[in-house]
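Aggregate trends can hide what the representation actually does to any particular protein. For completeness, the protein is quoted in full, as a sequence line and a line of structure tokens.
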Amino acid sequence: MKSVNFESGLDNERKVMVSIFWTNRKAARTEGCAPFKIKRIETENETYTPSGNKLLKISDDIMKDMVQTLDAGKSIPMEFNIGEENINVSLSADSFSVSVEKSPEIEEEIIEKLEMELTKKFPSLCDSFKPRVTPQN
């Protein structure tokens, strides 16, 4: 497991999206274009998992719950899957931890990137990423 503590002026919603984006992006380097699946998000109030064959998407209600959890000083454990890699993440308002099962070098790559991105005023975030992890009307 690798971790980083950070100071960031970003709002908590942006921290969530940047953290998930770079976790996906760095894992895709070893797993290719396999689908990125959100397996579990655990907030202070609820545990979110996919229903049946549907993919878990970060709805406005889930994001609101995640932001409230971070605002309350709590961390949010999350589980992702991409290809053969399973990724466990814990995000708080000022720290991020990641562990992977198959390719430990991914942990270091994610942490290095988030050390840079979470301290920027305008972190890099691909415009096409948000529609892939949020429900579309």
